Amino acid sequence: MEKLLNELSSDCKAAYDLESDIEIKAQIPENLKRNLSLDLPSIAESDLLRHFTSLSRKNYAVSTTFYPLGSCTMKYNPLVNERIAKFDNFNKLHPCQDEETIQGVLEVMYKLEKDLCEISGMDCFSLQQAAGAQGEFAGLLIIAKYFKSIKQKRTKIIVPDSAHGTNPASAAFAGFDIVSLKSESDGSISPAKLKEVLTPEIAAIMLTVPNTLGTFERNIPEISKIIHENGSLLYYDGANLNAVMGVVRPGDMGFDVMHINLHKTFSTPHGGGGPGAGPVGVKAFLEPFLPFPRVESKGPKFVLNYEKPESIGKLKSFFGNFPVMLKAYAYIKSLGAKGLKNVSEQAVLNANYMLARFKDKINIPAGNRCMHEFVLSPKALFKNGVRTLDVAKRLLDCGYYAPTVYFPLIVEESIMIEPTETESKETLDAFVDTLVKIIREETSLEPQKLKDAPVNTPVGRLNEVEAARKPILKWE
Amino acid sequence: MNVPGDLKYAKTHEWTRISGNKAKVGITDFAQHEITDIVHVELPEIGKQVRREQPVAVIESVKSAFDIYTPLSGKIVEVNDIVLSTPEIVNKSPYEEGYLFTVEFENEKEVENLLSADDYKKLV
């Protein structure tokens, strides 16, 4: 384990003297002065440099290894977009500046909104939300406010068990009760089963398309008809948008509200908890409820409109995570309509290529075709008490980031793989070979190797149960 | 897998032990095994009115969080506080010390509709 800076500290090392030439103390009242010395570490510059370089080399990222984390779209994000986000023209601005002086920023936000409308078929977007789950939350608050405005008491949201795990959480957080809907074996929704749970209290159904088994929902027109005839709304979880750009649009399929994870599909490195952006898109009749401020164009100028009396309010300070929006805008503009369609086609092709290579070797519950991701169920091949968790840990030893495991819950011992469009055939082949070898050979011949894994990582197998029951939350 | 013959079962893997108009409720041995190591339990409030098949408790493991449904409608009259501080007891003793709560039920008919041990065995 790497030592902390405080552990590296030693009195005899020559470090910078941080003493200021300004006499700050003189301006502070006597009773507020701190008379103890600060416990700052003292470390030689060369040691400090080695410390941080060493930490950086322990990074696990798309830039170091293949990262097939299902439903997370861990693709290569063009580095040029990072550079654009760091341009001084944007980077040095302050969010309290006058509208007149941030016309460029407002223009980017205005045009990004228009582009997202074009991609999704929705009428307008709020870009403010900081992540996918906050986008969901905003979408559900909008649904709640809409029904309040037309004086209907609707308290329930239907969430299929093939949806993203955040859906029921967001709906509960927005004050709704959850009606869980059991999906078919490929994760799709049966219109007959949907009718059984439909009541006048249902506000909306949240669909993840493609669903978490990586299959496209075939019954959307019928579901849309059933839901709208009930007076309810249709919500699209757009976290898997990377699979359908330029091919179908949620707005055209009858969806009323959706969110997009800009950091997944539109070029922001993610996985460390942000910053991200979860724009929420709606049809025109829901526009009054969107968070404020809204960017509007007035003649040649762009303005911020705070006068939205029916809005659900603000969800994030200022305008949201602007650099993420800027990267998304640069990504969309550099690829264009054809390029974005190509992204989705290639993402689906890569997933299907891998699926075809796994077929006949490891059980795939949803069948022979998928969208951008698929789910393996290797349970029948496991011997000697080996479980999916052990396979995932062994993959770390082989130099890969492990795929999503034990999700979706509807598949036992599941392994969920999303290769994305930016991986080469060579990378995909090497990963398939490794995983097949682990599951088909090592579980029988070297089970202990799996149970001991990982041994090549800076930290070995953690005791997850103890960590949850008796967490050590501070450094001692 | 242990499925005691004297208990009634719900399709959602809860068991119930009836005595008079009260029913103790917990999760089955099969359920605790599938959930894996339990690290956190949330129990309903005493006095709460509950409807059959309503989620009333939450069990969290390293794997995921699971809603626990009451098999019978009525009033929560007692909860097993021990599982709050030592959640692992639900894994170790799902039918005895690791039970979750007691519900005072209103409708005998609901009891008749629950599964017998044999029916539950067939289900899993």
As an assembly, this protein is heterodimer
Assign the CATH superfamily of the largest domain in chain A: Type I PLP-dependent aspartate aminotransferase-like (Major domain)
End-to-end separation of chain B:
10 Å
The parts of chain B where pLDDT drops under 50 for at least 5 residues are none
Order of helices and strands of chain A: HHHHHEHEHEHEHEEHEEEHEHEEHHH
Helical fraction of chain B: 10-25%
3D structure, described in words:
- The complex is a heterodimer of chains A (476) and B (124).
- Chain A is 36% helix and 11% strand.
- Chain A has 15 helices and 12 strands.
- Chain A is of the alpha/beta class and 476 residues long.
- Chain A has helices spanning 5-8, 45-57, 79-85, 88-91, 103-120, 132-149, 166-173, 191-197, 220-229, 262-265, 322-358, 388-397, 425-445, 447-452, 464-469, and strands spanning 124-126, 156-160, 177-181, 202-208, 233-238, 257-260, 280-282, 294-298, 301-305, 374-376, 404-405, 415-417.
- Chain A has 3 domains: 5-57, no CATH class; 79-335, Aspartate Aminotransferase, domain 2, CATH 3.40.640; 344-467, Aspartate Aminotransferase, domain 1 (Alpha-Beta Complex).
- Chain A is globular and about 75 Å long.
- In chain A, α5 packs parallel to α11.
- Chain A has a 7-stranded mixed β-sheet with strand order 1-7-6-5-4-2-3, with helices on both faces. In chain A, strands 10-12-11 form a 3-stranded antiparallel β-sheet, covered by helices on one side.
- Chain B has 124 residues and is α+β, with helices and mostly antiparallel strands.
- Chain B has a single domain, classed as Beta Barrel (OB fold (Dihydrolipoamide Acetyltransferase, E2P)), CATH 2.40.50.100.
- Chain B is 23% helix and 35% strand.
- Chain B contains 5 helices and 9 strands; from the N terminus they run βββαβββββααβαα.
- Chain B has helices spanning 29-35, 82-85, 88-92, 108-112, 117-123, and strands at 8-9, 14-19, 22-27, 38-42, 49-50, 55-61, 65-69, 74-79, 101-105.
- In chain B, the strands form 2 sheets. In chain B, strands 1-2-3-9-8-5 form a 6-stranded antiparallel β-sheet.
- In chain B, a hairpin with a 3-residue loop joins β6 (55-61) and β7 (65-69).
- The A-B interface holds A 165, 406-407, 409, 464-465, 468-469 and B 37, 39-40, 60, 62-64, 87-88.
